[in-house]
C-alpha cells in the first residue's frame, strides 16, 4: 500500500513517518493516501523558533495588537461547522508581513466607520486534518497532503463590524457556509450584503489579500511564498 509521508521536524532531528492514520486526543482520523515519495514538512515549535531566528519576518504576530480589532474565534467554541471546540484559546496569529498588511487595511476600514472582525487566522495542522476528515471537499477545506495557507499563518477568515457598536455588517451568508451563495462572485439579492462583501474584497485587495473564490470571508496574503506548515497549538505561542 502507498502511504502519505509527513516529515515532522522536531528537536533538531528529521523524523520520517509513513502513516495511514493520525491519532488525535478526541478520535482517530484516517489520512488520505498520496503517491510514494510525496512529502509534507511540518514544523514544531523548536523548528519554528529556529526559522524566525534566521528570518524575523517569519514570526507569528498576535493580531490582538492591531488597534480596535475584534475577535470571534469560532473554533475556540462549539459554534462552528464541526460542533466541536477545536482550539483551547480564542487567539489569532499571522506572519509578520500578513499582520502588517492587515493593520494597514484596518486603518483604512476605520476611516469609514468599520472594523475587522477575525474568525480564524493561523490554524495548527492537526485542525486541518480534522476538518478534512469531516468534509473531504477541497473547495472548502485544505487537503492534509499539502496543508493550508492557514497552517502557514498566511490566511485570515474575517468580516466587518460597525466600529462603534461592533455589530456585524450584513453579508451574503453566515461564516463557514458550504453553499454556493457564499462564493465570492455569487449573485447577491440583498444590495446591502453585496455592497458590504464588495467593500471587504476591494479594500483587502488593496493591501495584498485575495479572496478565496468559494468563501467570501477567506483571504490569502499573496506575498507569502516559502513559509512552512506549522503544527503549534496556541498555548505554544503565548508565553
From TrEMBL:
Q: Does the keyword Nucleus apply?
A: no
Q: Which cofactor does it need?
A: Zn(2+)
Per the entry, the cofactor note is: Binds 1 zinc ion per subunit.
Q: Which residues cross the membrane?
A: none
Task: Give GO terms: molecular function aspect only.
Answer: D-Ala-D-Ala dipeptidase activity; metallopeptidase activity; zinc ion binding
What name does this protein carry?
A: D-alanyl-D-alanine dipeptidase
Which species does this protein come from?
Answer: Leptospira jelokensis
Task: Indicate which residues the UniProt annotation says bind Zn(2+).
Answer: 150, 157, 218
- Give me the reactions it catalyses: D-alanyl-D-alanine + H2O = 2 D-alanine
Q: Indicate the family of this protein.
A: Belongs to the peptidase M15D family.
One Pfam family name is Peptidase_M15
Amino acid at each position: 500500500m502507498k502511504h502519505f509521508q509527513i516529515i515532522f521536524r522536531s528537536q533538531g532531528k528529521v523524523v520520517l513517518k509513513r502513516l495511514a492514520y493520525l491519532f488525535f486526543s478526541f478520535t482517530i482520523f484516517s489520512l488520505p493516501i498520496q503517491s510514494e515519495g510525496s512529502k509534507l514538512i511540518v514544523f514544531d515549535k523548536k523548528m519554528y523558533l529556529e526559522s524566525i531566528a534566521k528570518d524575523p519576518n517569519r514570526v507569528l504576530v498576535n493580531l490582538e495588537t492591531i488597534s480596535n480589532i475584534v475577535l470571534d474565534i469560532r473554533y475556540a467554541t462549539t459554534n462552528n461547522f464541526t460542533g466541536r471546540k477545536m482550539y483551547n484559546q480564542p487567539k489569532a496569529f499571522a506572519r509578520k508581513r500578513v499582520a502588517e498588511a492587515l493593520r494597514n487595511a484596518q486603518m483604512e476600514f476605520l476611516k469609514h466607520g468599520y472594523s475587522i472582525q477575525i474568525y480564524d487566522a493561523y490554524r495548527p495542522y492537526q485542525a486541518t486534518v480534522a476538518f478534512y476528515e469531516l468534509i473531504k471537499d477541497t473547495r472548502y477545506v485544505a487537503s492534509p497532503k499539502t496543508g493550508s495557507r492557514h497552517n502557514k499563518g498566511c490566511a485570515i477568515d474575517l468580516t466587518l463590524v460597525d466600529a462603534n457598536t461592533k455589530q456585524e455588517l450584513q453579508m451574503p451568508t453566515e461564516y463557514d457556509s458550504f453553499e454556493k451563495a457564499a462564493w465570492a462572485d455569487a449573485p447577491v439579492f440583498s444590495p446591502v450584503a453585496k455592497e458590504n462583501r464588495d467593500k471587504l474584497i476591494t479594500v483587502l485587495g488593496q493591501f495584498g489579500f485575495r479572496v478565496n473564490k468559494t468563501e467570501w470571508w477567506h483571504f490569502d496574503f499573496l506575498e507569502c511564498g516559502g513559509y512552512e506548515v506549522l503544527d503549534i497549538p496556541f498555548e505554544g505561542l503565548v508565553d
